[in-house]
């Protein structure tokens, strides 16, 4: 299976590998929707899934931003100080 990262939608080959065992297009659409994906249908009935939609659920998780530096100035004054 070859994937083209520049293609905005997932290829039929990719969708078939996700929905292995399912042959009917309506069953594939239902299965993909149960996975939590937003799925449209092509004019021929095949599922249409945006690549970014797949990456949103099953792509790599973004790493957390590093904490802010703690050696900066302290703008708060102690309680009770005037």
What's the structural blueprint in terms of helices and strands?
Blueprint: H1 12-18, H2 25-34, E1 40-41, E2 47-48, H3 51-58
Antiparallel strand pairs: 1-2
Main beta sheet: strand number and arrangement? 2 strands, antiparallel
Radius of gyration: 23 Å
Derived from helix and strand composition plus strand pairing, the structural class reads mainly alpha
Shape: elongated
Beta-strand share of residues: under 5%
Could you please describe the fold and organization of this structure?
With 82 residues, the chain is mainly alpha-helical. It has three helices and two strands, in the order ααββα. It has a two-stranded antiparallel sheet. The mean pLDDT is 85.
Can you describe this structure in just a few lines?
This protein has 3 helices and 2 strands, in the order ααββα.
Q: Can you give keywords for this protein?
A:
82 residues; mainly alpha; two-stranded antiparallel ribbon; 3 helices; elongated
């Amino acid at each position: 299976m070859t994937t083209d990262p520049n293609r905005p939608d997932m290829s039929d080959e990719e969708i078939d590998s996700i929905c292995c065992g399912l042959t009917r297009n309506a069953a594939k659409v239902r299965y993909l929707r149960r996975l939590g994906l937003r799925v449209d249908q092509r004019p021929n009935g095949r599922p249409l899934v945006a690549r970014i939609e797949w990456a949103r659920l099953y792509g790599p998780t973004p790493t957390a931003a590093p904490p802010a530096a703690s050696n900066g100035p302290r703008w708060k004054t102690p309680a009770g100080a005037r």
